[in-house]
Amino acid sequence: MTGSVPLGILNRSVPIGSHICAFYSGAAERDEIVLPFLAEGLRTGQKCIGVVDSLTPADVVAGLSGSGVDSARSVETGQLELATPATAYFSSGRFSTDDIVAFWGQGVSDVKTSGTFSFIRATGEMPSVLDHPDGRTEFFRFETKLNEFTSAFPLVVLCLYDLQQFGAEVLMEALRTHPSVIADGMIHENPYYIEPSKFLTRAQN
Fold first, then answer.
1. How far apart are CA 23 and CA 160, in angstroms?
2. Domain enclosing residue 180, as ranges
3. What is the pTM of this model?
4. Dihedral sign from CA coordinates of 98, 202, 204, 93
5. Is 173 helix (H, G, I), strand (E, B) or coil?
C-alpha cells in the first residue's frame, strides 16, 4: 500500500509505513503529540493501538474525550486498543525482541483478517525499566526490526521519548533506529538513521 496519511499533528502527512520517533519534554508536550495522533485515526476510521508507560489506558481515554471523539465507545468496539508495557512487552516475564515483534505482528494480522480496518496507527513508549545497558540493547533491537515490519503493512508507528526521562545514550539509539524524527515542533528526515542490517551487525560487535 502506497501513499500518505495525515499524522494528526504539525499539519503534516507522512508516507504509509513510516516509523517515527518523537522527542518531547514532559507530560504536556507528550499529550500534544500522542492524543492528536490517536484522535486523527479514530476520526478517520482507522485501528489505533497504544502501548504507553507514563499514562494509564484510562488516562488516554479521558484525554481523547476532549478531542471530539468518543474514545470510550472506540474502546468498546475495538477500534482503540490500549495496553501497558507490563502486559504488552513483558507478558512472558522478561522483555524479548522476538516476543514483542510477534505481539505487534499478531495484532496487525488480526486487524487484516477481521477486514474491519484498512489502516493501523500505533504509538508506544520505551519503558523506563529498560533504561539500562542490557534492556536498552534488546529494546533497540526491537526498534530497528520495526523498520522491516512497517514496510510490509498499511500502518504508521509513532514512538515516544521524553527528553526529561532518558539520557543521551538512549536518545542517540532512538535516532539510529528511526528514519524520521519529531523535534522542536517539526518533522525531520533523520541523518543519523542506520539501516536495520547495519544496526544489528553493529549491535552484535
1. 6
2. 4-204
3. 0.91
4. negative
5. helix
Which amino acid, one-letter code, is at 135?
G
Give me the number of domains the chain comprises.
1
The amino acid occupying position 150 is T
Distance CA 41, CA 186 (A): 20
Q: Which residue has the cell 522478561?
A: 94
Contacts of 113 (CB under 8 A, 6+ apart): none
pLDDT tens by residue, the chain, 205 residues: 578 999 999 999 999 999 999 999 999 999 999 999 999 999 999 999 999 889 999 999 999 988 889 999 999 999 999 988 888 778 777 777 877 777 777 777 788 788 888 899 999 988 877 777 678 888 898 899 888 777 777 899 999 999 999 889 899 999 999 999 999 889 999 999 999 989 988 766 5
- The three three-digit cell numbers of residue 41, written as one number: 485515526
CATH code: domain of residue 177 = 3.40.50.300
- DSSP letter at 5 equals E
- Using DSSP, state whether 86 is helix, strand or coil: helix
What is the amino acid identity at position 191?
Answer: P
SS3 11: coil
